[in-house]
Amino acid sequence: IDCAKYVAIIAVAIDHTSGFLYDNKTLAYASYFSVSLFILLSGLSSVISSSNKFKGFQHQFKKVMKLFISYSIATLILFIYYRRFFDLKQYIDTILNFNIQGPYYFLVFYFQLVLITPLLIYWYKLCNKSKYKILWHTITMFIILYLSSLFIRYTFILPVHGGGRFLFGGTYFALYYFGMLLSPINTMPFFKKNIFLLFIISCVSWIIWLVLMTNNMIIIDSILSPFFGFGFNPPSFNFSIFAILTLFVLFSLFNCLENLKFKSVKLVLYSFSNLGQYTLYIFMYHLLVKDIILSILPEITNIWLIRLLVFIPMITFPALFIIILNQVKSFIFSTSTV
Fold first, then answer.
1. What Cα–Cα distance (Å) separates residue 311 from each residue in 47, 101, 289, 299, 318?
2. Measured between alpha carbons, how far is 168 from 158 in angstroms, rounded to an integer?
3. Predicted confidence (pLDDT) per residue in 51-67, tens digit
4. Which of 159-173, 181-195, 241-255, 293-307 has the weakest average pLDDT?
5. Whole-number average pLDDT of the chain
6. From the CB of residue 203, how many other CB atoms can be counted at a distance below 10 Å?
7. Is the pLDDT of residue 152 over 60?
8. Which H, E and C letters describe 300-312, residue by residue?
């Protein structure tokens, strides 16, 4: 899951450098699974993390508060860096409106999804206990799709980008619950035995869907657009399917790689897994890293060198900073204890 989260944040960075580091339409479209994939993974991991102990509303509220503190600190840093001035009223307005940078819309609906997770997990487990659990899960999925449509058409939360405008993120709500439904996939013997076949089928399907989507050859979005929108944020039917296919590609790929015994492969997986634990910080600071580097970078004409010097720090520096900070804190506390 952490490896897939890191792929999702790489896709976020690719999306946010479109028109600057590259101008390829296909590459841009190929990155549009980013936020949807992260929501799928969040729904999936919420069920896995609750398998040992049910986490109620109080636990989720504390989680949101911790995230909100991290968000407030990030907003303060960005506020001071970009404005070179501190105004308390403007700072509070910026926090409450989630508009220090465009991507922060994500937190508006993500906080809401975290808060209702106990209710969704309770219902998910209740359905699992039924003899007709597949039927119950199917009915629930259709109800949530209907609710997602209502949220897109009849709710408005804040004047921010994408899914942050709608209650529970609109169709992100449906993806979150669908991620929950996918939580048993890693324990299913059929997938374990046929993991390479799943990888091939997923990759071929992913490529075909990307080509069709890039060339506007999938007409179902035009039919469903009055109900679910016609874009990638919140995701339409096309982009939702694309994100689900991406999840299967990554699930099968990382399982195949885990079975290999090459040390280099193990090192890559270990690195992706570790960095994937800090996707929130990469998300909050990657654009700041880009702007700081561009402000100190000398004039360079080689686009590949610019890509290397800008993109790699965007997806690594925030995580490395937090890792180093945690190490320093651990050292200080251990020294003070002694």
1. 33, 18, 9, 16, 12
2. 12
3. 666 678 888 999 999 99
4. 181-195
5. 90
6. 15
7. yes
8. CCCHHHHHHHHHH
> Facing residues of 235 across strands?
232
Buried (b) or exposed (e) across 238-249, using 16+ Cβ within 10 A? Answer: bbbbbbbbbbbb
Q: For a pLDDT cut of 90, what percent of the chain falls above it? A: 71
The mean per-residue pLDDT over the stretch 231-260 comes to 90
CA distance 135 to 122: 17
Of the candidates 218, 183, 199, the one whose C-alpha atom is nearest the C-alpha of residue 41 is 183
Q: In this structure, how many other beta carbons lie within 10 angstroms of the beta carbon of residue 294?
A: 12
Q: Say what percent of the chain tops pLDDT 70.
A: 96
Per-residue tokens: 169: 């993120």
DSSP 8-state class, residue 298: P
The 10 Å CB-count burial string (b at 16+, else e) for 154-171 is: eeebeebbbbbbbbbbbb
Place of tokens 């109620």: 56
Distance between CA atoms of 47 and 289, rounded to whole angstroms? 33
When computed from its CA atoms, the radius of gyration of the chain, rounded to whole angstroms, is: 21
CA distance 9 to 277: 11
- In the block, tokens 């993109």 appear at 311
